[in-house]
């Protein structure tokens, strides 16, 4: 990804990493007319539920503007470092070379454990994107696969990234299905891109991954959903972690970051289509896949507040990582530190955000060339519109009738129940609905469109 706005030249970035450990990853004195401080931010451009602390924030330049407004006589530079996963961000943070990083909930716990182990403690200071039911993670299979339920995974090869939230979803889902994750499947520990290639090549039977991989592969016609993570009904989220020594030495800088993150969140909420296109341009991801997660009704809700439900889920995640021998005990309460984001937002606004809950998602259609989407009160109404405007629909999204997880209308499993048409992310949930509703049956997307029109 090319440097934007305040990104420092590559040679300067290398120099910053070689400097002695200080409160800021690239702290340096300029002498004479003041000092120059480089703040190093680690982010994951393609893990798009972190965009308000990474890709989108960077493209908008809000952090740099907040730093310039501090008026403390210091010249600030931001060194943005892009990574594929949270693990290298944690490694760089515990080496004193990254000041602020963003990653998913399971990597956050590893971040906390490694920071304590190496005596370079880190703190969870805000949240980026979350889903209160767990819909950010999905298990998918190759198109046309004979696998139609979790029980079908017994004896199969399943790709995931061990230690990630997607791995946690896989473990929990298998356990609920009566399978032993350590014995009944062959788990392939692979990076998301490698796993996607393995699925396409047939060397993996299924893939359990985090945003945006499942939606991306489904959009491209390279995968079909097998299991919707929201069936676990356990929150998943991504968040921002900061080195404790950095936060203590430069609290104004951390507060500036969190104010900028809040601005980026407001931009995403107010301009969801434009935000999706900005992220798509920066990452190379299709805007339609970005919008599935980050759109107005997307799978993720963005809010910097550290909600109690998310902290509770984080505590439950510790057992999964301990069982995998990736961490020991993690003191979640000590790791969570919302003082800085509370100050950045103001106590009243922060309290309001803590108690807020996302509204039920509605169906959306993104017309070609439009800067806004159209919303529909029912899946049938959405399908009717799609049927009447087939040549001008860029993408159509519908919420799962059971979990509320948004999915592409043309990739959903549809059920006809009388005059009602209901979408589901995965075939197992569609079958479960049919089994409990006499007369209901699974129909093709083409038939659903025909019935709606």
Automatic annotation (TrEMBL):
Residues making up the signal peptide according to the UniProt record: 1-25
UniProt keyword Transcription, yes or no: no
Matching InterPro entries: SsuA/THI5
Keyword entries, A-Z: Signal
Gene3D superfamilies from the UniProt entry: Periplasmic binding protein-like II
Keyword Signal on entry: yes
Domain SsuA/THI5-like positions: 89-275
Ranges that cross the membrane: none
Superkingdom classification of source: Bacteria
Name the record gives this protein: ABC transporter substrate-binding protein
Source organism of this protein record: Streptomyces viridiviolaceus
């Amino acid at each position: 990804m090319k440097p934007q706005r305040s990104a420092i030249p590559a040679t300067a970035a290398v120099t910053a990493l070689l400097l002695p450990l200080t409160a800021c990853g690239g702290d340096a004195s300029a002498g004479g007319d003041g000092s120059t401080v480089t703040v190093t931010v680690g982010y994951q451009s393609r893990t798009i539920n972190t965009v308000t602390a990474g890709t989108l924030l960077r493209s908008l330049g809000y952090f740099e503007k907040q730093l310039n407004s501090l008026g403390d006589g210091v010249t600030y530079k931001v060194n943005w470092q892009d990574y594929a996963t949270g693990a290298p961000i944690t490694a760089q943070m515990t080496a004193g070379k990254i000041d602020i990083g963003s990653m998913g909930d399971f990597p956050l716990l590893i971040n906390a454990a490694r920071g304590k182990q190496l005596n370079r403690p880190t703190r969870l200071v805000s949240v980026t994107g979350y889903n209160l039911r767990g819909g950010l993670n999905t298990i998918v299979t190759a198109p046309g696969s004979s696998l139609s339920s979790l029980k079908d995974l017994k004896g199969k090869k399943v790709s995931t990234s061990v230690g990630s939230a997607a791995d946690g979803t896989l473990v929990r889902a298998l356990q609920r299905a009566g399978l032993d994750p350590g014995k009944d499947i062959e788990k392939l520990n692979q990076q998301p891109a490698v796993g996607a290639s393995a699925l396409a090549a047939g060397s993996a039977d299924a893939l359990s991954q985090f945003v945006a991989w499942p939606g991306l592969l489904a959009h491209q016609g390279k995968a079909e959903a097998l299991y919707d993570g929201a069936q676990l009904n356990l929150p998943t989220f991504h968040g921002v972690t900061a080195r404790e020594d950095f936060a203590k030495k430069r609290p104004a800088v951390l507060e500036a970051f969190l104010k900028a993150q809040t601005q980026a969140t407001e931009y995403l909420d107010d301009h969801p289509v434009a935000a999706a296109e900005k992220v798509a341009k920066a990452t190379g991801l299709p805007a339609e896949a970005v919008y599935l997660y980050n759109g107005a009704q997307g799978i993720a809700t963005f809010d910097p507040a550290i909600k109690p439900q998310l902290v509770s889920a984080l505590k439950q995640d510790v057992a999964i990582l301990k069982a995998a021998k990736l961490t020991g005990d993690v003191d979640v309460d000590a790791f969570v530190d919302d003082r800085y984001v509370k100050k950045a937002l103001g106590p009243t606004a922060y309290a309001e955000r803590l108690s807020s809950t996302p509204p039920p998602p509605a169906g959306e259609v993104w017309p070609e060339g439009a800067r806004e989407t159209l919303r529909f009160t029912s899946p049938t109404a959405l399908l009717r519109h799609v049927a009447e405007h087939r040549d001008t629909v860029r993408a159509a999204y519908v919420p799962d009738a059971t979990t509320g997880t948004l999915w592409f209308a043309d990739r959903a499993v549809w059920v006809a129940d009388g005059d009602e048409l209901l979408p589901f992310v995965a075939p197992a949930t569609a079958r479960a609905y049919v089994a409990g509703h006499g007369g209901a049956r699974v129909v093709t997307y083409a038939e659903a469109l025909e019935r709606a029109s």
